Amino acid sequence: MKRTICTMCIMSLILFMTIPTMAFGYIDPGTGSYLLQILIASLLGSLLALKIFWQKVKTFFVNIIGRKQK
After folding, report:
1. For the chain, how many structural domains are there in total?
2. Is 8 inside any structural domain?
3. Distance, CA of 62 to CA of 54 (rounded, Å)
4. Within a domain: residue 64?
5. pLDDT (tens digit per residue) in 8-63
6. How many CA within 13 A on the CB side of residue 30?
7. How far is CA 37 from CA 26, 40, 46, in A?
8. 68 against 15, higher pLDDT
9. Domain limits at 37?
C-alpha cells in the first residue's frame, strides 16, 4: 500500500514537471549587445585564423620557390 502511494506521488510529480506552462519572458536590451559582441568576436577570430593560415601557406610556397632559385 505504501509503495503504491509512493509510486503515485512520484508519477504525479513527474507529470506536473513535464506539463508545459506559460512563460512570460522578454529579451532585455543587454541581450542584443551581447549577441552583437559574439558576432563581431566570431568574425574577427575567423579573419585572424584565416590570416595566420594564409601566411603559413605563403611562407611554404616562398620557401619552395626560394630553394629552386638557389
Report:
1. 1
2. no
3. 12
4. yes
5. 999 999 988 888 777 777 778 788 889 999 999 999 999 999 999 999 999 999 98
6. 0
7. 20, 5, 14
8. 15
9. 31-70
Would the pTM count as exceeding 0.85? no
Q: Convert the chain into a string of H (helix), E (strand) and C (coil).
A: CHHHHHHHHHHHHHHHHHCCCCCCCCCCHHHHHHHHHHHHHHHHHHHHHHHHHHHHHHHHHHHHHHHHHC
User: Does 7 reside within a domain?
Assistant: no
| Residue 60 counted as domain residue | yes
Nine-digit cell at 27?
529579451
Residue with cell 543587454: 30
Residue type, 20: P
Distance CA 8, CA 12 (A): 6
